[in-house]
Structure formats: structure tokens, C-alpha cells
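Sample intake — Integral membrane protein
Collected from: Fructobacillus parabroussonetiae
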Amino acid sequence: MTINELIERNNELRAGLSEKNQKFYDDFLLYARTTSWLKDEQAVEELLLKSLQDILKAQKNGQSAADYLGKNPQAAAAVLLKKLPIHWESFAKLLFYVFFGYLAIAFIPAISVPGKVVDLGAYMMAGLYLTVAACIVAWTIDAAVYRFQKIRVANWAKLVLSTIAGIILVFPAFAISFWLKTALRLSFDGWVGIATIVLILIVLAIYQKNARTSEVINRPIYYYILFQAVIGIGSRLPFMEGMMATKLGKLGLAILLGFGLLIFWLVSWRVIKKLNDHD
């Protein structure tokens, strides 16, 4: 079975769990998938499916998931994941996704306006920082998630703490890209800019297809980047260069960028609403 087939089969079988067992297994699955960045995804999904099948068998015999795997779903998942060896190809993918994914996501909006000098060196340094940070998170996330789940506070407080932690982690990358000055400052005008945007879009497409992240959550980001890319390419076409040099052209470009940002927030709001309705 492929990874997608394993996930689909897992989703089908979960419907047979009792309410108590489903709560236990959902926590078990969430922890396993969140903390298995350095494991082979195929092996992880096979392990999750086998565990689910075992729980269903135990359920038929009157045994709960907690009795079968242990009282704590996070600890049970951690024990099973330790049996899987580190998958170095997954580690290499993690580095690729973080570094080039950041460049794709951050760099296209930065060069969407023609004539703007962009510090490529600063963006590469920011990507390097995020790559190192991702490595540290990958090695420590199992203990962090376990301890975070143990904190007895309201869900909204956990959401606030998670948001603050995310901002603290990501802020240095934005600080580096905005304030660091390097010698690698380039202007991506004309066909050079178009070729650069197209190349980054290709990298982003590869990232979107293979990255182990939520397609639903990432959709607003991809829409916004694609919108920015279309503007960046269109504004660099020969018949548009003269118009972009005028005040009216610059005003129109600013309005389009603002419209793109508005669309991004609207799509984000719809996604959040859909996720809340699903929950």
C-alpha cells in the first residue's frame, strides 16, 4: 500500500472505534505524526495502521486502547517510534523543504515589485537559520510535545503559548531578511526577474507536493504567493515596463498588491472557519 492508501485506510477503520478509544488513538496518531520527521513516513503509517488494527481487535475482546497500549498515548507512541531507525533521506528532505521552502515563500513577494534591490544574501542567511532551527526542533519535538500536553491549562492558553513560541522561533528569520545587509544585493528586473520567479515557483510546487504539511492550512499561503508571482511576471513584461514607471502604474500595482493581501486574509478566514466547523 502507498502512503496515501495507508492514511485513507486508517481514516476508514477509525470509524469503528468507540468514543473513548477514538480519543486515545487520535492523541496517539497526532503525537506519532508530529514527532516522526526523522522516520520513514511509509514505516510510520504502517505502524499506525497496525496499531489501529490491534486496538480494534482488543476492543472486540472488551479491552480498551489504554489497557492495550498504555495509559498515556504520547508515551505509547514514543515507545513504538523508537523502534524505527532514523531515516536520513527524511532528514535531507527536511533540510531541503525548510531552506528552499522559505526562499520560495519569502522571496517571491520580495521581488514582486520590479526595480527593487533585494538582498539575496540576507534571505539565504535567514533560510540557513530556519534550517538549523528546524533541525533542533526535529531532535527535541518529542519531549516538547509530551511536556506541552502535560500542561493543565485551557486550550486557548495552549494556542496562545504555541503562537508565541512560533513567533519567537520565526522572528529572527524575518529580522535577518529585513535588517541584515550583505554584498549579495541584486535587482531582478526584466527577463531575469521573470526567470527567477518561474524557478522559485517550480521549487515551491515540488515543496507543496512532497512536504508533510497540511494542504488545507497552506492553501492561503500558496494562493497569495501565486498572485504575487503573476503580478511580478506581468509587471516585467516589455509592454508593461513603461506603464510601471509612471505614478499611475505604481498606484495600480500597489492596489493590486493590497487586493492580493485582502484575498489572502479572506481565504485564511474561510480555512480557519472550516477547520473550526470540522472540529
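Post-analysis note: Residues 37 and 162 are 19 Å apart (CA to CA).
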